[in-house]
Write a structure and sequence with these properties.
By secondary structure, this protein is mostly helical. The protein is built from ten helices and no strands.
Length: 240
């Protein structure tokens, strides 16, 4: 029985190697794999990141239950949270954190088409270097090129979502109670900017996760284009 198992295991390993080599062998010559083709492949990988990973953010508690992207509190808001808990307002403090994440969840849901269109419109100055770069090279480029534009488009959506999930009402109560505590420094945080920044970070983080999957796992290359383009990345150690 053990002998049969070992034979089967070796056969599977050879099969996997053969399949991977077959994919690599489909790589066109460098003069055929043009910059335009590479750009299309990178675009497709990034759009896949939106289609596969962003749905995880827009389901209920998509931010709140995701340790990677959960919106926590900055120093100013942490001080508010800490002092309120000290006076027994734990439930209100808990709700404050949750509604910020719910606002991000709702905003991403409504902004997904804007994000996809923004990605489709960007151009890559040196796509081959991006392809042969780090596992998050394309996401870093995307972030640098689109963050300012997405922030501008995303901000009013976040503001509406904050109102929709009543985060503004809950945080108004939180801040009012906090500012009433003797000797504390008065605060008036801009929740819209805060949630906008955190939600965008969450989006880029999830896109980066998918980029890494495409780069490191052949089974995540779900098109001929991705298999051809990222096969070149697989062979980068042999490319001068």
């Amino acid at each position: 029985m053990i002998k049969r198992f070992l034979v089967l295991l070796i056969a599977i390993q050879f099969s996997n190697c053969a399949q991977q080599q077959k994919v690599v062998n489909t790589l066109p010559k460098d003069n055929i794999l043009t910059e335009e083709l590479i750009s299309k492949g990178i675009h497709q990988a990034l759009v896949n990141g939106i289609k596969k990973q962003i749905p995880k953010l827009i389901c209920e508690d998509g931010f709140y239950r995701n340790k990677i992207v959960k919106i926590s509190l900055d120093k100013e808001l942490k001080d508010v949270d800490k002092r309120l808990r000290e006076i027994g307002l734990n439930n209100l403090a808990d709700e404050g954190v949750k509604v910020l994440n719910r606002a991000a969840e709702d905003a991403v849901k409504n902004a997904t088409p804007i994000i996809v269109n923004t990605i489709k419109e960007i151009s890559f100055n040196d796509p081959k270097n991006i392809l042969l770069g780090e596992n998050n090279e394309a996401t870093k480029y995307l972030k640098n090129k689109t963050r300012k534009q997405l922030h501008k488009s995303f901000k009013p959506i976040v503001k509406n979502s904050i109102s929709k999930v009543k985060a503004d009402i809950i945080w108004s109560k939180l801040i009012t109670r906090y500012n009433a505590i003797p000797f504390v420094k008065q605060v008036n945080p801009d929740l819209t900017i805060y949630v906008t920044n955190k939600a965008l970070e969450g989006i880029y983080t999830m896109i980066e996760i998918e980029e890494k999957e495409v780069r490191t796992k052949i089974c995540h290359r779900n098109s001929i284009l991705l298999r051809q383009v990222f096969a070149l990345q697989d062979k980068k150690s042999f490319i001068k």
